[in-house]
Amino acid sequence: VDWVVDGRADIAGASTTITQERIDRGVTFSSPFLETTEKIISNRNLPKIETLADLKGRTITLRAYSSFIQTAHTLREHGVDVNIEVAPAEMSFEEVLNKVAEGEFEATIEDGYIADIQAALRPELLIGLQVSEGQQQGWMIKQGNRDLLRHVDRFIRRFSRSKEFDQLLVAYFE
User: What's the per-residue H, E or C state across 78-126?
Assistant: First the structure.
């Protein structure tokens, strides 16, 4: 987000959850092209997190500036007794997942498709409770760059109707 806001990048072409907080920080989003839920990921050697009650007293560590922080606070606002820690800003999602896999962190929240991929690749990770409904994903574009936004939206519209898009979804997300 910072790179786009600061003008060091005009676009962040990655699946990013569209949030009002990010828009307020100074980015525009492309048309949504994907929707994903958010899931708890924990270490297989710890007690499973399959229900909201399983989160009681547990600690979830989240990437700094991620949309997952709001999801965790929403859980707490709805009476879930979960401890929330935010990882240092320089820690990547991969590093957070590594610490969960090693048992250093109890659990984290990730986009559902990332959770599925990571758990398939790392037997020490366990997918738990789904903690959100589908969240729209898009590309971030520097605010005010309407020409780039128009081109990106046109590309997304065309590509999302293609057979290749359908094949990629099946290959990577199903």
Answer: CCCCCEEEECCCCCCHHHHHHHHHCCCCCEEEEEHHHHHHHHHHCCCEE
